[in-house]
Every structure is written in C-alpha cells, then in structure tokens.
Amino acid sequence: MINPKKWKAPWEDVEVHRARDALLKAEAANRRYHTAATCKTVDEASHALAQQYTDNQRKCIEEQLNNINCVDESLKPTEIWKVINNLSGRKRQSAAKVKAENRKDQISGWRKHFEKLLNNDTNQIDSFVAKQVVQMAYPQISFEIQLY
Fold first, then answer.
1. pLDDT digits (tens, 9 = 90+) for 83-104
2. Distance (Å, whole) CA 90 – CA 83
3. Are residues 30 and 51 in the same domain?
4. Same-domain check for residues 22 and 77
5. Per the structure, how many domains does the chain have?
6. Whether the predicted model's global pTM rises above the 0.85 cut
C-alpha cells in the first residue's frame, strides 16, 4: 500500500505494485524455505520488477518529452519546468510565508518584514570591512568609458 503523503514517481502504476508484491512474496517464501527453487523465484521476481519499472520510466519520460515538443515555442520553458518538477517530485511552494488571518494582516506582516530588513543599521565593523574590500578591489578593476 502506498503512503498518500509520500511522493510517488509518476511511472509507478498498478503493474509495478503487482511486481513488487510478487517480489515480497517470493522473498518471504525464500526466508521460510531457502532452496534453489525459491532463490530462482526471487531472482525472476526481482528482474520482472526491474523490467517493469524501466519500461514504465521510459514510457513516462517519452510522454513528457512529447508534451514539451507539442507546446508552442513561447511556452516551452514553462512546460520544461513543469516536466522537471513532475519527474523530480518537487512541489510548488506557497507564495506567501507570512501567516495571517486575512489579507490586511498579511500585508502588515510583509511591511514589518521589509522594514526590519531594509532599515537595519549596519555596524561600524561591517562598514570598515566593506571599505577595506573596496579599497583592495578598486585598483584591480579596469574602467572603460565608451562614448556614443
């Protein structure tokens, strides 16, 4: 049984789960009665699962590539990222990380966040270090003036 909260590869389907269940049963039988026949059954079930998984992967990736090829040129970057996110299992992140009861509180939270971020006074050590870095880098920078 698949955990619904866990990311599931798009190529995992009913056939993969059947092959995985067959492998688990063969391994359990092999643990109970370790014979040459049960070892062979485990090997066959393992190869069948690997083959099913590979076939499904290939089919899924080919479908995704066909989707990219069918999309208009202006939308290709968007479609490519959709495919990458789908195949890698990445989820969209929510746009707002500021927790609020309503829109007004959310905007207020963002305002406070950026006020704190932008109105932060730099201390004297940071400005001293910045001046030293600029003084060291300035002679190494070549300036080119272009007249138009």
1. 877 777 777 666 656 677 888 8
2. 10
3. yes
4. yes
5. 2
6. no
